Amino acid sequence: MELAIAASASYIITNNVADFAHSELKHLGYEIITPEHILRLLRS
């Protein structure tokens, strides 16, 4: 998480999306997505 914040990342990519459903990271503007979702975004 620290690296994502330091790098000003837009996404947190994880297979464990459920644990981040109410995370403070979402409130800070990070989008929590799965690896499959980021692949779909990159392919489109």
From TrEMBL:
It comes from the Bacteria. This is PIN domain-containing protein. It comes from Crenothrix polyspora.
